């Protein structure tokens, strides 16, 4: 059986019980819930709950189960480009966990933190700084106000030493659909102190069931944090021509194999993505309402002394080791690249000062004030300090000044953003075929092909391709989804599939071919949540 749509007396009774249990201020009815969680979504949201403690989550779920009311949990709801707080199906009450924002424990010796779903990147950074601990936040470009737990559960990644964010999860607790509590078995056997130290526990590994699923509501998580090394140094490798990409991939693969112990994640940005970061969107192109063509992008990049691609990465170690590693990296890329740049925080600050005080010198260096700021921002992320600079991207094509609060346009749905994030084998021929496909599909649908390739290992990239559009326009929104669906379908023909999709894109995961993994997951869902209480339809479960 599955939970019924929230209509009539059942919802009214549940709302009354939630108010009595959680407090009136923690329960939002339809108009307020739709206004807060519905922008940019087509889903019907009948209510929302905002418990202030983990115990309230269990009570909320028990009430929902008793009245067969659907719940959709979100950590902060700021899942930019992946559906935000929008449920995967209609008539779900949003269970907003952003008020569960306690940092429960920090172990400076083991380098772990135990926290609740509402704890943000910025909050953890401030807390670690207050404690004086040289630990790194697992940063992403999503900004300071986004949830660490939510990102880890979606298997997010970054470019710090612990790039795989779910890989750094040491343990978690979750409320199941019947209101019972899941805890790691190791903790239940008296090994509470071992949970932060050993990920796999004893017996079947079950924490992974709560990643990209709807089997329960995670209420706390322990994450291993990388220790900030004595020296962090970035490298920038500029590829001037398209034919340099294939040998650069082979070079990167070899470096990750031989130097993976000191290298963080590495990004390869194509010319379009570089232009979106370094160049204002041309007014004439904005006026004609068509995407920039390759020759226009090439001219923009040339004017800013940029080439066809940029390889960006970092090294973490003692200063002598880091400097030697950077020198080896630059030598390895030399046969297939143009200029290269090594950058420490001190050097980046110096370049930013030069660009501000002497704009002509900055122009000669190919470095404007905005580019210098982005270099400092990249170093911040590499060192585990989050910022909001990457949130400028959705405003690239607006033709208006940036707002003071870069998150607002995303929250209101005015700035449309959909991420296509496929896994791509680190094989030059496959990468080139993928890039050609993205160029063809995006331009045909009226979008610039903004491509980033991020190394997840020496075997695999994750690519992130943002589709930017006016979220206020139904026609633009429909065109963006047509483009996304085509990218997904054409990618599958190449054997390339996303590592995650948003709440409004789960339909793309359906297919006529057998999916034994999905069949098993559905059997588990039926066992754990027979009435379909928690986020029905999420990842087709």
3D structure, described in words:
This protein is α+β, with helices and mostly antiparallel strands. It contains 18 helices and 17 strands. The protein has helices at 8-22, 30-37, 54-67, 121-131, 148-153, 185-188, 245-259, 271-278, 283-288, 294-303, 319-333, 345-357, 359-364, 369-382, 408-412, 428-444, 474-493, 516-528, and strands at 27-29, 47-49, 71-74, 93-96, 103-107, 112-115, 169-175, 181-182, 217-224, 231-239, 267-270, 309-317, 340-343, 415-420, 423-425, 452-455, 460-470. Strands 10, 11, 12, 13, 14, 15, 16 and 17 form an eight-stranded antiparallel beta sheet that branches. It has a five-stranded antiparallel beta sheet with strand order 5-6-9-7-8. A four-stranded mixed beta sheet has the order 1-2-4-3. Strand 16 and strand 17 (460-470) form a beta hairpin. Helix 1 runs antiparallel to helix 3 (54-67), helix 7 packs antiparallel against helix 11 (319-333) and helix 12 runs antiparallel to helix 14 (369-382). The longest helix is centred in the C-terminal third of the chain and has 20 residues, at 474-493. The radius of gyration is 24 Å and the shape is globular. The mean pLDDT is 92.
């Amino acid at each position: 059986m599955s939970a019924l749509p929230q209509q009539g007396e059942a919802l009214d009774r549940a709302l009354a019980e939630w108010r009595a249990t959680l407090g009136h201020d923690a329960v939002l009815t339809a108009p307020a819930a739709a206004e807060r969680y519905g922008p940019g979504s087509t889903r019907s949201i009948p209510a929302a709950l905002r418990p202030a403690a983990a115990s309230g989550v269990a009570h909320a779920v028990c009430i929902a189960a008793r009245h067969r009311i659907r719940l959709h949990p979100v950590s902060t709801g700021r899942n930019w480009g992946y559906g935000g707080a929008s449920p995967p199906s209609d008539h779900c009450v949003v269970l907003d966990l952003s008020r569960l924002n306690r940092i429960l424990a920090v172990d400076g010796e083991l380098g772990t933190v135990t926290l609740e779903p509402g704890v943000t990147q910025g909050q953890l950074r401030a807390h670690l700084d207050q404690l004086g601990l040289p630990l790194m936040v697992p940063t992403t470009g999503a900004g300071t106000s986004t949830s660490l737990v939510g990102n880890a559960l979606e298997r997010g990644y970054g470019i710090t030493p612990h790039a795989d964010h779910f890989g750094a999860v040491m343990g978690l607790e979750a409320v199941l659909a019947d209101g019972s509590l899941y805890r790691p078995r190791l903790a239940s056997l008296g090994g509470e102190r071992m949970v932060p130290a050993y990920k796999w526990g004893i017996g079947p590994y079950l924490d992974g069931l709560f990643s990209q699923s709807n089997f329960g509501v995670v209420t706390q998580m322990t994450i291993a944090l990388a220790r900030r090394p004595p020296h962090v140094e970035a490298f920038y490798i500029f590829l001037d021509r398209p034919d340099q990409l294939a040998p650069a991939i082979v070079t990167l693969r070899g470096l990750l194999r031989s130097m993976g112990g000191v290298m963080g994640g590495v990004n390869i940005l194509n010319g379009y993505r570089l232009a979106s970061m370094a160049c204002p969107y041309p007014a004439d192109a904005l006026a004609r309402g068509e995407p920039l063509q390759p020759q226009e992008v090439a001219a923009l990049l040339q004017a800013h002394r940029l080439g066809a691609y940029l390889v960006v990465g970092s090294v973490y170690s003692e200063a002598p080791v880091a400097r030697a590693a950077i020198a080896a990296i630059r030598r390895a890329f030399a046969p297939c690249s143009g200029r290269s740049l090594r950058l420490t925080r001190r050097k980046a600050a110096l370049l930013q000062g030069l660009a501000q005080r002497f704009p002509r010198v900055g122009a000669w260096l190919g470095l404007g004030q905005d580019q210098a700021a982005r270099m400092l921002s990249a170093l911040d992320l590499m060192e585990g300090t989050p910022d909001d600079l990457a949130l400028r991207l959705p405003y690239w094509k607006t033709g208006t000044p940036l707002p003071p609060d870069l998150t607002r346009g995303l929250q209101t749905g005015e700035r449309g953003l959909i991420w296509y994030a496929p896994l791509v084998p680190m094989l030059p021929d496959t990468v080139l075929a993928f890039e050609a496909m993205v160029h063809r599909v995006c331009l045909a649908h009226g979008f610039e092909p903004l491509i980033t390739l991020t190394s997840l290992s020496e075997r695999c990239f994750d690519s992130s391709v943002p589709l930017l559009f006016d979220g206020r326009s139904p026609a633009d929104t429909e065109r963006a989804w047509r483009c996304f669906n085509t990218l997904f379908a054409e990618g599958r023909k190449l054997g390339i599939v996303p590592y995650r999709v948003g709440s409004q894109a789960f339909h793309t995961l359906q297919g006529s071919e057998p999916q034994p993994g999905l069949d098993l997951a559905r059997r588990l869902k039926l066992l754990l949540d027979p009435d379909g209480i928690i986020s029905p339809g999420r990842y087709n479960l």
